[in-house]
Amino acid sequence: MTNNQPRNSRETWEKLLDLLVEALEERQAERRAAPTSQPQPKPATAPAAAPRPAATSSSTSQQQLKPQQPGPQQPSPPPPTKRPPRPGEADWKPAPRVNSIGFGLTIGRLFLVVAIMAVIINIPLFRYGVSLARVAPDERALVIRDGLLLKGEGPDVYVLEDGAVRWISSLQAFELLGYQWHHVHMVDDTFIAGFPQGEPIHVLFKCPDSDPIYRIEAGVKRWIQDIPTFEAEGHVWEDVHMVDCETLRAIPDGPPIPEDAGVPPQP
Amino acid sequence: MRMFDIIEEILRNRHHFFLEIRDKKEISRKIRGMALASIAFLIVYGAVLGASHSLLQSLSSAIKLPVLFFATLLITAPTLYFFHVLFGSSQNITQSVALILTGITVTSVILLALAPVTLFFLVTTGNYAFFKLLNVAIFAIAGIRGVAFLSEGLGIVSNNTEGAARRRNIVRLWIVLYALVGTQMVWTLRPFVGAPTLGFELFRDIGGNFYTNVMASIGEVLGFWMVR
Q1: Single pTM value for the model
Q2: ipTM exceeding cut-off 0.85 for this assembly
Q3: Does the N terminus or the C terminus of chain B have fewer Cβ atoms within 10 A?
């Protein structure tokens, strides 16, 4: 009788230990299976234990020990807050390789469709050769930059340079500078008035058979009296363009520069 | 269509793809496949991008868009490689190029996926500023996703060695550098859309910058001002 009692108690202890080991193994298996999917609550006991009075510390420690006891009804302890391994780290394992779903073929088809569409929208389909890509009515915005050509309600054309508008004083100057009419933007006069006025852009003509130099301005030619006047007006020799005398003579005379210079000579 | 199989490898089995880069398995084939696929996608998206202006602009953008991405790769890849080596990584430059190409390929796939949206707005609206901003948004989405892929790939290829934490910081800084170089490259190679009020230009004068232009376009779309 007396020998059986310690044996029984030993067996009981062994059973308890076995249960404990099983419970621990189960818990570890659970952790391994779902390390990140479950939200990990903060361990409530650890921060709460510090401010509690000493009298309750024993009950607290009992609560802390409780989850470690085996038993199906016992609440599981909060899982440890260990960071899941980052991709590439030692204990990280990649997800298993997935089978092909023919995505390469799908993306290839999409590529072909978009490529064909990119061609189709550039083919002129509408009247006046407008393609599908450019058929939507323009809500055009001006891009303010050097070289922008502006025209108000009057006949004058301006070019924007260094934040100022410069009057292009003649059609000849406009053409010599290489501008094209379809680049001229019609705007309100108030828009042009919003910019400071820069130096006008003139073109100077001279014919090979005569000396006088003329400034072409608003459709007339203005004789520049002499070299000091030429320089005082800010002109340089690079501004002078040679034209044949017939063409120069066909341009009507305007007031000379300076205006009291007298009757202008004919080229 | 076999040339696009690599896209499935990247998108659906990316961890294995990065592990293969780490183990230097078939890197040349991967680089070739990614380069071909991304060039093809970028050419098509570039053609769509410039179509709102003219056929010439469409052709020009189709050439310039791959140039933009690959020039940015050429400029920024050595920086990433050398700084990684400096902080203990054992990857070689081919692996770095393969990783950056992964990011570019993902970006180009997303651009291709969004191309029908761009085409729709291209045909139905004529607002230049809006179209420009739409594309900035599309490129931002595609670029961020591409860079996220690249960042993950760098983690897998070189995280398991000494100095990994420092290299992660370097990757973050490098991403900022990549974005800055990329946007400056966009500005240098512009126009890609082409202002409707201007004639065709292969390149526009250098002046201003990408960020002020985006802000100006936002202001115009919201009606704060008409021009600029």
Answers
A1: 0.59
A2: no
A3: N
